[in-house]
Every structure is written in structure tokens, then in C-alpha cells.
Amino acid sequence: MTKQPEWLNTAVFYEIYPQSFMDSNGDGIGDFNGIISKLDYIKELGCTAIWMNPCFDSPFGDAGYDVSDYKKVAPRYGTNADLKKLFKEAHKRNMHVLLDLVPGHTSVEHKWFKESMKAQKNEFTDRYIWTDSIWKEPSGYGSLRGISDRDGSCVVNFFSHQPALNYGFYKPSESWQQSFDDPGPQATLEAMKDVMRFWLNLGADGFRVDMAGSLVKNDEDGKGTIRLWKNVRAFLDKEFPSAAMVSEWGEPDKSLQGGFHMDFLLHFGPSHYNDLFRCREPYFSSRGKGDVKEFVKKYLENYEKSERKGLICIPSGNHDMDRLARSLNPQEMKIAFAFLLTMPGAPFIYYGDEIGMRYVEGLVSKEGGYGRTGARSPMQWDSSKNAGFSSAEKKKLYIPQDPAPDRPTVKQQMADKSSLWHEVNALISLRMQTPALQNLGEIDFIETGYPLVYKRTAVDGKACMVIINPSQKKCEVKMKEGQVLHITGKGAEYKNGCYKVEGGTAVIINLA
């Protein structure tokens, strides 16, 4: 297991979608100076670190996940110097910043790809994955064809304007498929290390890596990709040992082998994450018709594979999924946060989730957002023009805001002691004061229905019991009496050898 930076042991992350967070120059799009102006807010909420979605130069066909220059920030956010200032301002506040690294593909506008398209062999010919004939499509992959004089079809990831970078095939089966050790894939890897080196030298604290498990193709059990990231780990250990690495992989046993410090729980695949928050009957709905068992089963499977280390990160949401508020009401979200902020691994709070920002329905897709666009609307700060996000005319805003007159705002919720914001703030504060609740504390599940009951244990043996009861029905949990540290919801009492917990309530108990 890779030794991680000390600050990561207690980190609580705040995810910033930069174009929607805070606009400082009135063009309707968020920027670095806007983020800098709100660092004190993030710190006051209790978060100690930031994950910022891609901010590199891009044609924005996929909201910045289609990079055209890895070493230059998109001008709409500012300059490289502005980003460097953001790092410094965060560090002044004892906060850390992870950039979003997209190593699997670029935009078709990247200079590497433009050179790769040329018929004449050059330094970038093998930077991307090409078949050896225009008539040969890569089986199992989408491709770009007939776009240049080069004979061949180019493999793409996701959208058709995202050509896949070449890290080789674990088991090449076609003449055009290269192995990880071939010169082309090795040059690609070195180029990506150089990108990481560039931003770490400017002050970045590390990276959240987009789709980290997808780089080597035809990869049996992830063995080739694990080998690739071990190579990166050796580079970082030598040059940047304090750089933090969080993977979007969804298989912690593999990502941790590869040298990542933490893995990100995915909202797709076998995790059952959406059983909790985003399905027809979410577990955290007060209707009490949800099911947490499959989530716990898969979580424990990954937890055991990762040597019972608290290294699986569970986000409140992110730019790729519906807002929590689309499925849960404010009281239900409080209970959901009681869960999110008492689980192992670094919590990730998606900007605006702390005030229950809503999914904006019926929006036209923006920059490849499609159904995700409604979860990317500008932050709602106050009741002034454009909810304090921008001085631009409404029609110039990056994405339309929630038009409802009762839309939640930071100012309103900070003034209301019973608000979701204050509940999130209190839970983060308790987490910071209680080692058993922090990122590396162990977890043992006691009950996996209504209620969900689990024990968190610190390295020194001190422990807490967490009782989560989202349903409207009261429940009883037999256990020894302890010190109640926090109650979210309606209330609980200890009587006749058990805690009687009201519906819609979470209780955190310090065990003697």
C-alpha cells in the first residue's frame, strides 16, 4: 500500500466545476479569480481540499474533458499565472488542490493529434491508436475514419472527437496493436509524466485521474494498467513524493496496487452507489423502501481487497450525475450527509450540494453535457442578480440557473441554523475532531437495513457507532450506552438497553 501524504488522512474535498462556480469578470463563465474569492467560504464550510474539473485549453466539446493543450489553461478561466495564484492562496489557508488529469484521450484539436494524422511518419505517429488500414475498424471500439491522408482508423474514447492516446495493448492480437513496452506507448507515458511534472512544479498538490483504469487496452484484469501506474508511482516517489493521487477507477484493489492513494466510487458498474441516492426508491428516501444490502456487500468486497484501509471515496455527487435534490428532499439529504461524512475514505462534496441545489430540468445540452447539463448550473450565492454568480446578462450565463423563486442560496442557508448547510458544516467539524470518523478509521457493519448501523474504529482503538435511519418509522438498536456526539433529525433516546431512534434521524455515538 502506497504511503499517502499526511494531509490526505483527514481531507474533505469540495468539487468545483470551474465554469459554474464564480464569475469574476462578468462574461457569464466562472474563472480562477472567482474561485480565489470564495476560498474562505470553502474553508468556512469545513472542506480542506479542492478537486477542480479540467481547466486546460479545450474546444469544450466535452466540458474540458477534451484537452487541446495540457500545459495551458483555458483562457476563459484565466492564465497559468492565475492558476498558480490559486494554488498559493489555497496553501495560505492550509488547503490543497487536485487538478483533474485526463490521460486517456485528447481533443482532435491537440497538436499531437494533428501531427499524428499526417501520412509521413513522425514523433507523434504512434501517440494515438491507429489501425493499419482505413478499411479496418478496431473491433470493440469506436473510431475516426477518412479524416486525413493517413491510412488507418483511429480509436476513440467516449465521444467521436476524443481520440484515444496509445498506452499499448496488454495482449496485442492485431498487427497494428502495440504492446505497452513499444516505443509509441512509452513515449505517450513519458509525455503524460511531463504534464504532471509541469503542474506539480507550479504548485498543484496532485491529481484526480479521469478513468484511470482504462488506459491499456485489451487489459486482462487490469494487469497492464496497474503496471503502467506503478511506473508513474515510481516517478512520483522520486520527484514528487508528496503528490496526492486519487483515481476514478471503481476497483480499489487494482488502483491501490497501481500506487494511487484513494479510489473513487463510480456511479455506474457494480458498486450499487445509486441504490443509495439515485434510483426509483433510494435508500435515503423517507419512504423506507430502498435497499442498502447490495451496496454494503460490494463495498465490503472492495474494502477487504484493499486491506481494510479507508481508501474508497464516496461523493455526494459530481458533474456526471443528477443532483441529490432530484431524488431527496432537504431533510433526507441531511441524513445522506450524515452517512457520507461518517464513512471511511475522503468525502467529496459537489459544489452546491451543501445547500441542496436542484437539478435544472429541461435544459438544452451544453458542451457535451446532455442529460448531465441540469446538474452543472451556476452556483447560487445570494438573492442578487444571477444569484450572485455573475454580473453578466442572464442570457450570457454558461448554463441557465434554477428559475424557482425559492431556490436555495448560500446566504439564506448560512443565516438559517436549521439548514442543510449548517448540518453539513457541523458533520464536517465533528469528523475533524473525531479520529474514528476520519478517512483511515476502520468500519464494521452491524445492521444493513432500516436502520443502517456501523462501527468506526480509529488506529488507537477508540470507536464510534453510527445509526442511520432514513425511514419514517422508529427503530431500536441494542447496544451499550455511549456518549451521543451528534443527532441529525428528529431525535433519539437510550432506554432499556437500546437506542430508540426516531424516523428520519442519524445518531453518532462515542463508545467508551
From TrEMBL:
Transmembrane regions: none
An example Gene Ontology molecular-function term: transferase activity
Top-rank taxon, per record: Bacteria
Family annotation (Gene3D superfamilies): Glycosidases, Oligo-1,6-glucosidase, Domain 2
GO biological process: oligosaccharide catabolic process
Domain Glycosyl hydrolase family 13 catalytic: 15-376
Record's keyword terms, sorted: Transferase
InterPro entries: GH (IPR017853), GH13_cat_dom (IPR006047), O16G_dom_2 (IPR045857)
Pfam annotation, one family: Alpha-amylase
Family statement drawn from the similarity comment of this UniProt entry: Belongs to the glycosyl hydrolase 13 family.
Protein name, per record: Maltose alpha-D-glucosyltransferase/ alpha-amylase
